Each structure stands twice: as C-alpha cells, then as structure tokens.
Amino acid sequence: MPNSLIEVKNLKMYFPVVSGILVPRKVSDIKAVDDISFDIRRGETFGLVGESGSGKTTVGLSLLQLYRPTSGQVLLEGKDLCKLRGSELRQVRRRMQAIFQDPYSSLNPRMNVFDIISEPLGIHHIMSPREYRRKVEEMLTLVDLDPGMISRYPHEFSAGERQRIGIARALAVGPEFIVCDEPVSSLDVCVQAQILDILDSLQTRLNLTYLFIAHDLAVVGYMSNRIAVMYLGQFVELGTRDQIFEKPLHPYTRALLSAVPIPDRAAEKKRQRVVFADETSGALTPSNGCSFAPRCTVGDEQCHEAVPEMEMREAEHWVACWKS
Amino acid sequence: MGAYIVRRLLWTPVLLFIIGLITFFLSLYGPGDPIQIIMQQYQDPAIVQRVREQRGLDKPVLVQYGIYIKNALRGDFGESFKFRGQTVSSLIGRRLWVSAQLGLASLVVSLILGIPFGLLAAQRQGRWQDTSIISGSLFFYSMPVFITAPFLLMVFVLWLKILPSHGWGGLFDARIIMPALILGLPGTAFIARMTRNSTVEVLSQDYVRTARSKGLSEFRVFWYHVLRNAMIPVFTVVGLGLATLVSGAIITETYFGIPGIGRLTLDAFFARDYPIITALTLLIAGAYVVANLIVDIGYRFLDPRIKFE
Hints:
The complex is a heterodimer of chains A (about 325) and B (about 300). Chain A is about 30% helix and about 25% strand. Chain A has helices at about 55-65, 85-90, 115-125, 130-140, 160-170, 190-205, 215-225, 240-245, 250-260, 265-270, 300-305; strands spanning about 5-20, 25-40, 45-50, 70-75, 80, 95-100, 175-180, 210-215, 225-230, 235-240, 310-315, 315-320. Chain A is globular, with a radius of gyration of 21 Å. The mean pLDDT of chain A is about 90. With about 300 residues, chain B is mostly helical. Chain B is flat. At the A-B interface, helix 2 and helix 3 of A face helix 9 and helix 10 of B.
C-alpha cells in the first residue's frame, strides 16, 4: 500500500440552482463534482486535466475545504477534513495551501508583498513578529524574487512575478500539500516554464505533494507522476503519466491527446485530430448512460443505457468506459 | 504626490474665478433690477441714478466684477439688498454654521444606518434580508422630503409625542433629530446600496478566497480584506457629500424653522438679493471643488493602484 497523504472518498460537490425573486428556492443542482474517489501519495504530483467546466478547480477547492463538499470524505492522514469546523479547520490550513490561477485578482491590491506573505505567519503562531521580515525575505529569495521589493504592491509586478509572490505566500507557513490550480494558464509560455521549474525544484527541496490542475495536457504531463482525466464532474481515466500518454484507454483521453501539437514537423503533419460534433451537452441534464456518450466517437446503445464504473485494467490504470 | 496637490490647489482659485464670473453675469442680466429692489417705493430717477452710482452699478460689468473680486479677497462680499446695513458675510456666516451642523448630523445618520444595512444585505446576498433592504432603500431614496417630513412628524410628534416638532438648538439638542433623520434618509439608502454592491463585488474577488486559504478567521477576512476594499467607493460618496454641508437644505430647513443656509437661499432668491446669491453660489461651488480635491487625494491613499500623475 503506497503511503497516501490525502484520500478522497465518494466526493460530491453540488451547487444549487436557485430561482425566484422574492422567495428564492432551489430548483435543481449542478453536479460540479459527482462521486470521485482517489488518493494522493506523499511526495507525488497528482495531475488533473479536463476541459473548462469539468470540475477540476472544484475538486481542488473541495479538498482544501474552501468549498464545503456536499458529501463524501477528504482524509488528510486519516482525519476527515469535511467534519472540521472553525478553528480546527483553520489550523489544518497550515498543512495545505493553494496557488491560484489568476495572479491578478488573487492578491489583495491594498496589501504590499510583506503584508501578503507575513499575514498567515501570525495567524498560525509560527514565529514572533520580529522575525517576519527575515522570513518574508527568505521566501522571496526562494522563488527568485528580489527581497528588496518587499514593500511594493501587487500592481507593480508582472504576471509571472505575481504568481511567484503567490507561491511564496503559499509556502510561508510550511505546508506539505499544495493545490496548484492552473498556476500557469494565464501566463506567457516562457514565463510558464520558469514557474514550472520553480514548482519542480521546490517540490524536491521541501518534500511537497502537489495536486496539479491544468487544462493543458503537455503541462500536466511535464509535472505529474499520475494523471486523472475529468469529464463533467467525474473521472473517466486515471493512470500513471506513461499509461495516460502511451496507452490511453478512454476515447475522451485519446481526443485530448490528439489535440496536443507535436514539436516536430513530420510528426505534426501526420497528427490526426479527433473532432467532436458539439460542445459539452451540459452538466444540468445528464442522460441515463455515460456522460460522454453524446460526444463519443466509438459509443453505441449500451453507452446510453448504463453508466460505466471505474475499473482497473492493469496496475494503477483505471478507466470508466464500456468500449475500451 | 506633493506636486499633484499643489497643482490641484492652484487650479482651485481659477475655477472659482470662472464660476463667480458666470454667476455675476447671470445676476446682472437676469430678470429684475436690483436697484428697484433697494429703492422699493422711491422711484425718483435722480435718486435711482445716485444709488446706482454709489453702488458702482453704472460701471462696465467686468470692472464691477473686478471690484467684487478685490473686495471678496478681503472677505467683503458687499451688503445685502434686502437686509439693509447687514454684510453678506455676517448673514451667511451665522447660518452656515447652523446648516453645517445639520448636514453633519444627517451624514452621521446616513453612515451609521447605511453601512451596516449594506453589509448585511451583501452578506445575505439573494436572501430575503437583501431583497428587503435593497427595495426598502430604493423606496426611501425616491421619497421626497415633503412626504417623509409630514409622515415622520405625524408618527413621532403627534402620535408618540417623543420628539419636538420644530426649532433649532444646535447639534446637541433634541430638535435636531427629526430634520437630521429626514435629511439623512436618502443618503442612508444610497450608502446602503453602494456598500452592498461594492461588498458583493469584493466578496467575489479571488483574493478573498486567498485570504480564507491562509487560514484567517471569517471575522478577519471580512473586516480586513473585504471591508477595506469595499469601502473605497463609499468613501467617494461620503467625501462628495461633504460639499452638501454648506449648501443647506431648502425644504427641510423651511419645514422645521431652522435658520440655515437653505432658508437664506430661498429668501435671497425671492428678494433678488444678488450679493447674497452670488456669494452663496461661490461658497457652494468652492465647497464642491474642495470636496473633490479631498476625495481625489484621499483615494490615492486608499488605493495603492492609483498613481499621482
């Protein structure tokens, strides 16, 4: 049994759809995350891919309890985080942090770098206020920023620099687990590489465990040990990096892979894309069967009638599909 | 930053000079002859001519304005037409203090009621508290003083008999409560809506989520991260509201028999008391210019993203 840091069991996160002006009432649910189970092992990077709206970010935020899951368990070393409230929960936040997608809106514009990074230090009683400055400078150095910028405000930095401030902020409290929620999606490609390198080297140095969320398979492939592919709130395939890239089983995974450009002219010319007929058919009205069936290129009657469960096809490689 | 403030301060007198010029022209070329008001029943052309010369009203308009500005700079805004022998400065000065106290009291009412209601609505976004506060504030915002004043008088003075009906006794007198409440209601409604909207917007910002993920208590997230950002637009409204302190409230002051600027304005208009009208216009315009300056400078302290150009 591999040493798992986080175990997720039957996680569900539904958002109510409310209608009515004077007397608001719930009319239905959006099933952003619908019955997902997996584990994240100490020291690994667990990649999560899927298109926009597939529920990747919701999974990340539910693990951190920034969304309180509708049902299911999130176990951090056996302790169920969903049951924690108030100060107990805030104490656990010291062990798990997040790097968010948008480096512009995720930093409070009225706080300077020192305030942003040092604020959680006091909350968690990590050190006395006299040591904050040294600690903040140390964190800035860790992410290759000039410690002299300590009293600047977020708007004075570039997107990549702001993302590094975000990383420094997340690391300041000394967490073990970090949810990287599309940390490079809003950055230029060359800046993306810098940030990925920083994340990579910090992981080894500080023995961190990552949940790495992205919609870019190339980025996820570069970072991850294991990868889960999400579609409309559910996992459709889960395997090691090599399994997903070399032997994809689910038609959706294959379609995603076919969309990755190959940096080689001959190979790129031969690349055949799987093109879907329509956009996502909607999380509000799922059919009885496989949620991917309406867009699937290999599906038949069976797929519309019953939901496929996740099944293990070989060691570490799971897939939810009738046809693979 | 210093240079910016100095430049703004240097522009202020230029603005006031132009505003004064326009008002001065309007009062001279507008309907009604000030001399006839001074003279009233004495209509002997010789006397009229002598008074005209005495008051300098026979000189070209620009020269008259020059003289006016020269005197104004020494604090002399001339003599009232209606109240003989009383200087404009003394007439305005006394009433200005009254109106400022009333305005301050109503501003305090607006803030004390408006901000908590707005915050409550934002926190209960989409629920019945939000709906009722927002529709209630729309109701009070659109309700004119001549409806709210009689209604509140009826309730508090006639039925409950707990508040005096009219008169003036200064900031710490029970008689200020009714007019301050009535004047403050539209402001309360406006500030409540403003607070609600900007708080809702800030609550949806990613940095609020970041703050929660740091492990901060909800209390600190709200008071430190949300409120500090949500109050910036409210500050603008309150800052500009400072200007209304000197403009007085015509209807409310008349209704409650308060000797403030509003009543003086009304009296001056009816009497075509041009020296007073011109001075009041300059005063109010000046107040708006200064309030704007305060808001602009304050804004740059509140929001580090705004730079002094």
